[in-house]
UniProtKB/TrEMBL annotation:
InterPro entries: UPF0047_YjbQ-like, YjbQ-like_sf. This is YjbQ family protein. Belongs to the UPF0047 family. PANTHER family: UNCHARACTERIZED PROTEIN YJBQ-RELATED (PTHR30615), UPF0047 PROTEIN C4A8.02C (PTHR30615:SF8). It comes from Xanthobacter tagetidis. It comes from the Bacteria. Pfam families: YjbQ.
C-alpha cells in the first residue's frame, strides 16, 4: 500500500497581489531559464505565501517546469519535439514559414501557463526543477511572460 503524508493545513488571508511582465529575448529554438528572474520578482514584491502564475502571451512559444541539472535533458526534449512536429511534414498553415505550424503543435503539447505554490517567499519547486520558456521558432523573438502573485506579504 502506498503511504502518503502531508503537512497540516494553514489558513492565511489573501493580503497582496502583484504582477509584472518579463520580456525574454530568445536566440531561436531552445529553452531559456526563467527561474532566477521569477525568484527575483517574488523577492522584489516581498512575497510571503500564496500562488504564483506565469502566462506566456504567444502561440509559438511555451512554458514548462523541467530538470535544471543536466542540459542534455533539454537537448533531448527538443529532439522529441522535433520528432513529434517535424518542419517538413507538409503542413497546410505555413504563412510565416516552415517552422510556424510545428511551433503551434509544440505549444499545444506543452504549457502556456504555470501555477506554482509559494511558501515563505520561495517557489515550492523540486530539487532539480527550473522554470523555462521554450522558443519553438527558429529565429530570435522577444517573448512576453506575465507574472502574477496572489497571497500574503512576507514578514
Amino acid at each position: 500500500m502506498t503511504q502518503m503524508r502531508r503537512t497540516p493545513a494553514r489558513r492565511a488571508p489573501v493580503t497582496t497581489q502583484a504582477h509584472a511582465r518579463l520580456t525574454v529575448e530568445t536566440r531561436g529554438q531552445g529553452f531559456t531559464d526563467l527561474t532566477r528572474e521569477t525568484a527575483a520578482f517574488l523577492e522584489e514584491i516581498g512575497a510571503g505565501s500564496g500562488l504564483l502564475v506565469l502566462f506566456c502571451r504567444h502561440t509559438s512559444a511555451s512554458l514548462t517546469i523541467q530538470e535544471n541539472a543536466d542540459p542534455d535533458v533539454r537537448r533531448d526534449l527538443l529532439t522529441a519535439l522535433d520528432r513529434l512536429a517535424p518542419r517538413d511534414l507538409g503542413w497546410v498553415h505555413d504563412l510565416e514559414g516552415p517552422d510556424d505550424m510545428p511551433a503551434h503543435v509544440r505549444t499545444l503539447v506543452t504549457d502556456s501557463g504555470l501555477f506554482i505554490p509559494v511558501i515563505d517567499g520561495r517557489m515550492v519547486l523540486g530539487t532539480w526543477q527550473g522554470l523555462y520558456l521554450i522558443e519553438h521558432r527558429d529565429a530570435p523573438h522577444a517573448r512576453e511572460v506575465a507574472l502574477q502573485f496572489t497571497g500574503q506579504a512576507g514578514n
